[in-house]
Design goal:
This protein has 9 helices and 10 strands. It is an alpha/beta fold. The chain has 2 domains: about 5-110, Tetrapyrrole methylase, N-terminal domain (Cobalt-precorrin-4 Transmethylase, domain 1, 3-Layer(aba) Sandwich), CATH 3.40.1010.10; about 115-240, 2-Layer Sandwich (Methyltransferase, Cobalt-precorrin-4 Transmethylase, Domain 2), CATH 3.30.950.10. The strands form 2 sheets. Strands 3-2-4-1-5 form a 5-stranded parallel β-sheet, sandwiched between helices. A 5-stranded mixed β-sheet has the order 6-7-10-8-9. The protein is globular. The protein starts with a strand and ends with a helix. The protein binds S-adenosyl-L-homocysteine.
Length: about 250
């Protein structure tokens, strides 16, 4: 019976992987990976058979139960099985379902943590999630609803923290803005969209809650976070300064 490693692949850049993750990959006989995982990360397991079990918004995804079964089968046939997940495996990654299925089958599992998208994005922004006097709490939140859950329950929850990081939300920016506003979050509250954090294709769009839909229309198709909180006020000011300088340059040139 083999062992399964549930490994965090980080936000995208291969060198944001932990050394422990790289070691597990170098020993893997088979790697089951999400669609979000970059080729440069998979290249750390050149000897392994690759199985894409990716979930990607709006595209066909492998049913969770089928993934669970594949993991169990692989562990019965191989010494080292890596299940590679974007960011940290324990955050919005259906890790519990996989851990339970493996435990039920009596298979040894080790979880290797990773850099979650929120941390990749914060590094890119140069803007701390917490700040003395401004933000003492951070919430990782997703608007994506499970079976039987009320549709806007997430928005109520968003009031519970100073800084809110929304995962799997950028494609529904209109609903996010409406939900937050209905829950009492001011439309002028600073927000920022970060797409492809840590990758060369990274994009940063500072905005406000009210203007989220407009800003989201500028996104490409990559994974993106919506971050909301007063800590991002200075990003908006910085962007306005840059805009102002650009406008000045344009009128000087005219
Ligand atoms: N376990 C992952 C999150 C999985 S949910 C983690 O800890 O990061 C998938 C969501 O993560 C995407 O919809 C997007 O909101 C976010 N995400 C993943 N990679 C990202 C990246 N490089 N930049 C911005 N957001 C990212």
């Amino acid at each position: 019976m083999g062992k399964v490693y549930l490994v965090g692949a980080g936000p995208g850049a291969a060198d944001l992987l932990t050394l422990r993750a790289a070691r597990a990959l170098s020993q893997a006989d088979v790697v089951f990976h999400d669609a979000l995982v970059d080729e440069a990360v998979l290249a750390l397991a050149p000897q392994a058979r690759r199985v894409a079990v990716g979930k990607r918004c709006g595209q066909l995804s492998t049913a969770q139960q089928f993934i669970n079964r594949q993991l169990v089968d692989a562990a019965r046939r191989h010494a080292c099985v890596v299940r590679l997940k974007g960011g940290d495996p324990m955050l919005f990654g259906r890790a519990q379902e996989e851990l339970s299925a493996l435990a039920e089958a009596g298979i040894d599992v080790e979880v290797v943590p990773g850099v979650s998208a929120a941390f990749g994005a914060s590094a890119a922004l140069g803007c701390s999630l917490t700040r003395r006097g401004l933000s003492r709490s951070v919430m990782f939140l997703t608007p994506s609803v499970g079976k039987g859950e009320p549709e806007h329950a997430w928005a109520e929850a968003a009031r519970g923290a100073d800084t809110v990081v929304l995962y799997m939300a950028s494609r529904q920016a209109d609903a996010i803005a409406r939900g937050l506003t209905a829950a009492g979050v001011p439309g002028a509250r600073p927000a920022v969209l970060v797409e492809n954090a840590s990758l060369p294709t990274q994009r940063v769009l500072p905005t406000t809650v009210a203007r989220l839909p407009e800003a989201a229309r500028q996104l490409g198709g990559g994974p993106a976070l919506i971050l909301v909180g007063e800590v991002y006020a200075e990003l908006i000011e910085r962007a306005a300064e840059l805009d102002g300088a650009a406008a000045e340059r344009r009128s000087a040139a005219a």
